[in-house]
Write a structure and sequence with these properties.
Number of domains: 1
Structural class: alpha+beta
CATH topology: PH-domain like
Number of strands: 7
Shape: elongated
Helix content: 40-55%
């Protein structure tokens, strides 16, 4: 597969970030309810409101931050960025990449880039969780490397 565009990129989708957050919040609410049920000292309305605000702020942050992780493919190399380093992308030239592998961690496949220096870089996107096109995306990264090396 040969890249058709001058630049290509990957980000995590909303379901890839929302599903774990929703499951985690459901578990947290269940634990709070269990704690309230077992406790003789129930929370006040003010304490419950504070917890709800904190959970809402956490959910919004957790939904937005992972979407800011980005991997871009350019003729010069593979570029990565994180939310805190948006202005400072890390460009890995194609000739510095010795291998592109897929590693499974906690049931999710991630792309691992091995550099000539021996360093390994795990990409934040693409990720196989809720992504039917993951293998196509890995093939695209490998194709870019083979074409521009």
């Amino acid at each position: 597969m040969r890249p058709a565009e001058k630049v290509s990129g990957f980000r995590l989708s909303v379901p890839q970030t929302a599903v774990p957050i929703i499951l985690g919040m459901t578990l947290a609410v269940g634990i709070v309810y269990l704690g309230l049920w077992l406790s003789d000292d129930p929370m006040t309305a003010e304490e419950l409101r504070t917890i709800a605000y904190a959970a809402g702020a956490g959910a919004i942050g957790a939904l937005l931050l992972p979407r800011m992780y980005e991997v871009r493919l350019t003729p010069e190399g593979l570029s990565t960025s994180t939310p805190l380093e948006r202005r400072h992308r890390r460009l890995i030239p194609w000739h510095d990449i010795s291998e592109i592998n897929v590693r499974r961690t906690t049931g999710v496949d991630r792309v691992v880039i091995s550099l000539e220096s021996g360093e390994k870089v795990t990409l934040n996107a693409p990720m196989s969780f809720l992504d039917r096109k993951f293998n196509d995306r890995v093939s695209e990264i490998k194709s870019w490397r083979n074409t521009h090396r």
